[in-house]
Structure formats: structure tokens, C-alpha cells
Specification:
By secondary structure, the protein is of the alpha+beta class. It is built from 3 helices and 10 strands, in the order H-E-E-E-E-H-E-E-E-E-E-E-H. The radius of gyration is 15 Å and the shape is globular.
């Protein structure tokens, strides 16, 4: 998150437009991979903000590898989200209006590995038994996915 951290040093906690990507990773049993986030103690999707010069797909691939140890064989574009509903204030005070492009990934390689700098745990959940405490921006993405994937 180098670019955003550098920008934050200049603007403080003021609201910023943050562009990023997330990945809905599904295993062979159609379970969803989620991470228990360190910052807000909520379960969330794998993803994060773009770095300068990256494409959204490159950001999704990088975040997937950094946060889960998994490398996608293929990503499928789900949807791009933005607007007032994607305002979020982090526990430490930073404010953002997220612009998030979501991808799905059903085939991947690598060994599942937790990024201990950002997450406490990684776990696959049944789509019918998702945790209650889902990070607010990710909840909207998941609701969209669950409503359109039927």
C-alpha cells in the first residue's frame, strides 16, 4: 500500500478516492475464502488498493498473492463498485470513497498462507454460512455477488 501511505502523509485523514480490486476466491467445494482483518476485526475479501502504474487486474493478482499465497490461473471480472455506499472510515481515522473492481477466481495454485501484517486468519466459508462480522465495503460486494450468481 505504498502509494496510499505516501499520499496519506501529505493529506492526513481527509477523504480520498481509493481505487482498488478485490477477489472472490472459491475453492472446489464452492466455499469462499475470507480473511479476518487486523484493522477492524472483521472478515473481508482478499484485495487492496492499486499502486501507481498497475492495472486493476494486476492489483488483484498482487493482492491475492500477498494476502493469501494463492496465484490465480484466471480472473473473471464481476463488477466495478463506487459511490456514496462505498464511503468507509478506517478505525484509525482515514476516510475513503472506494472504487472497487471485483473479480472471481475459481482456479488457482499456490499454498494458502496468511499475511500476518494485515490479517489474523484465513478461512474458507460456505456461501450459506458466512460470518456475521463482514467488513462494510466487502459486505456490499458479497451481497451483489450472492444476488447475481444464482
Amino acid at each position: 500500500m505504498g502509494y496510499m501511505m505516501d499520499l496519506r502523509k501529505k493529506v492526513g485523514t481527509e477523504p480520498l478516492i481509493m481505487v482498488g480490486a478485490c477477489v472472490i476466491i472459491l475453492n472446489e467445494s464452492h466455499q469462499l475464502l475470507m480473511q479476518l482483518r487486523e484493522d477492524n476485526q472483521c472478515w473481508g475479501l482478499i484485495g487492496g488498493s492499486m499502486e501507481l502504474g498497475e492495472s486493476l487486474e494486476e492489483a488483484a493478482i498482487r493482492e491475492m498473492k500477498e494476502e493469501s499465497g494463492l496465484i490465480p490461473d484466471q480472473l473473471e471480472l464481476l463488477h466495478t463498485f463506487s459511490g456514496r455506499d462505498f464511503y468507509y472510515q478506517y478505525p484509525h481515522g482515514d476516510e475513503v470513497y472506494n472504487v472497487v473492481t471485483a473479480y472471481t477466481c475459481r482456479k488457482y495454485s499456490g499454498k494458502l498462507q496468511n499475511d500476518e501484517d494485515e490479517a489474523i486468519d484465513l478461512k474458507f466459508f460456505s456461501l450459506k454460512e458466512l460470518p456475521i462480522n463482514i467488513s462494510p465495503p466487502d459486505k456490499l460486494v458479497l451481497d451483489y455477488y450472492l444476488n447475481t450468481s444464482k
